[in-house]
Amino acid sequence: MNDTPFDAMFSGVIGQDYQMLKLISPGSVEMSRQVGRAVGEFCQQSTVSVELVELGGGTGITTLSILSANERVKVLSVDNEPTMQLQAKQHLQQWAEAGRLEFCGDDALTALQAMQSDSVELVASAYTLHNFEAEYRKQVLGEIYRILKPGGWFINGDRYALNDISAHTRSTQKEVEGYFKILTKIDRLDVLEHWVIHLFSDEAENHVMRETIALQQMADSGFKQINLSHRQEVNALVTAVK
Ligand SMILES: C[S@@+](CC[C@H](N)C(=O)[O-])C[C@H]1O[C@@H](n2cnc3c(N)ncnc32)[C@H](O)[C@@H]1O
Question: Is residue 8 part of a domain?
């Protein structure tokens, strides 16, 4: 785990039982829906096919929402954790067969670095960038900007930590309380253990994606019209234009 620039936390119990997130964090499913809605909004502006790169496609929850948003969207879904991506390949086989979905198993930065500048209309993601170590995330943001066509959008539904650190801590504590209530009731202490451990990584100083700093980083990368909306506790939707 230490010789990679990211925490491969999705290979074990979390990855195998990822659908449990729907139980302990229904808001995250809603955020994937919001990412799809924003993709649909972008597509209304254009009549041609829309190339989209998805970062951290996971088991395919966000990917499905994106594919359903508009039939002109073609997705390249990037995820470097086979436990997660294999599930997406199974769930979304029909979309791949229809030629609307391809997969890449590289990590986000490596995948982006291999892509041409000004080559895609959209980059979309949910609950992935907050997992990145801060310096890695900065490089990813720069690469997202580079590969987007002028006028292209970056859409990210994610954990954007509250600027008010005390409020953020309270919100996170409430979240953990919810994990315990739900997962002890169904006797899944193994899943509980892994999500609590995972939260420590999310909240670590070199990972946490605090709202003002994150939006400033995007502005520094060149993004315009940066907008944060749909905030639900520590989660929010961010859109930005190249
Ligand atoms: C919390 S899941 C989100 C999955 C999906 N978007 C959703 O909302 O359900 C985060 C995903 O990001 C992937 N991931 C984490 N770090 C990554 C990296 N550096 N490059 C590519 N994928 C990464 C993980 O493997 C995992 O599948």
Answer: no
pLDDT of residue 2: 42
CA distances from 97 to 89, 100, 103 (A): 11, 8, 12
Select from 14, 63, 79 the residue to mutate for testing ligand 1; criterion: most ligand atoms less than 8 Å from CB.
79
Tell whether 222 is covered by a domain: yes
| The pLDDT value given to residue 47 | 81
Residue 78: beta bridge partners?
Answer: 55, 104
Task: Please report where in the chains the tokens 């829309």 appear, as a residue.
Answer: 50
132 CA → ligand 1 middle, Å: 10
Q: Any idea what the CATH number is for the domain that residue 94 is in?
A: 3.40.50.150
- Distance from Cα 136 to the centre of ligand 1, integer Å: 14
Contact 241, 122 (CB under 8 A): no
Tens of pLDDT along 35-91? 999 999 999 988 889 999 999 999 999 999 999 999 999 999 999 999 999 999 999
- Tell me which residue range forms the domain holding 132: 13-241
pLDDT tens string 170-183 = 999 999 999 899 98
Number of domains present in the structure of the chain: 1
Question: Angle at CA 239, nearest 5°, toward 230 and 59?
Answer: 80
